[in-house]
Amino acid sequence: MEDVGTYCMDIATHTWSPVGKWMLPLYGKIEYVPELNLWFGFSDKNHLSAADLSNLDSKPQLVGTWKEFDPLEDWDLLQGPQLVNIGSGKFCIARFFNTTRISYYGDDFIDQTFAIITGVEVVPRTYQGNGNGSANGGKDNRIASSNCNGSASNSCNGHGNGNGNGNGGKKKLRMIKHKSKCHTTTDGTFIESVF
């Protein structure tokens, strides 16, 4: 059995070397954003998160985590979220759901399958001092809109907030949620992947 931990691959020699006996705080596909010098992916709670991986001598910590979308209670998550890096701290996040109904005979059946695609942007948090030594972080007052087509229009009104929490570290970030769209079809097709 191989050792559990984190490894780096030298792309010139195609060899792996151990970095530490700890696991990265991000899961699935992760993306590097050079403008912020941070890596982005999902935390264990499927929230968009950022980590500074510039020093791997100890376990990296998350420097920000955000929940961009709150599904309705009757939505069943089909698979983990997917992240597409659009560039300059802008991302597209896809989440996949279905809803079920109980038939006349008491059996559950899938009523709808749909994807929620949300555009977000992560930017450095700016502070404005008030002259007495304290600073207040600016809030983004934009409201995200949901746009659903077809029969899912009543069940695709998810919401989220754009307020991230900088979890310590040197960098303070905030997430701006731009827009969420619901994709459903009537011909039985379904988006399974966005990258």
Which features would summarize this protein structure in a list?
195 residues, five-stranded mixed sheet, four-stranded antiparallel sheet, 48% strand
Structural commentary:
The chain is mainly beta and 195 residues long. It has one domain. 0% of the residues lie in helices and 48% in strands. The protein has no helices and 13 strands. It has strands at 6-10, 15-20, 27-33, 38-42, 48-51, 62-66, 76-87, 90-102, 108-124, 127-129, 135-137, 146-148, 173-183. The strands form 4 sheets. A 5-stranded mixed β-sheet has the order 7-8-9-13-12, with no helix packed on it. Strands 3-4-5-6 form a 4-stranded antiparallel β-sheet, with no helix packed on it. Strand 3 (27-33) and strand 4 (38-42) form a beta hairpin. It starts with 5 loop residues before the first strand and ends in a 12-residue tail after the last strand. The relative contact order is 0.19. The model is unreliable at 131-169 (pLDDT under 50).
Set out the fold topology.
Elements (H helix, E strand, L loop, with lengths): L5 E5 L4 E6 L6 E7 L4 E5 L5 E4 L10 E5 L9 E12 L2 E13 L5 E17 L2 E3 L5 E3 L8 E3 L24 E11 L12
Parallel strand pairs: 12-13
Antiparallel strand pairs: 1-2, 3-4, 4-5, 5-6, 7-8, 8-9, 9-13, 10-11
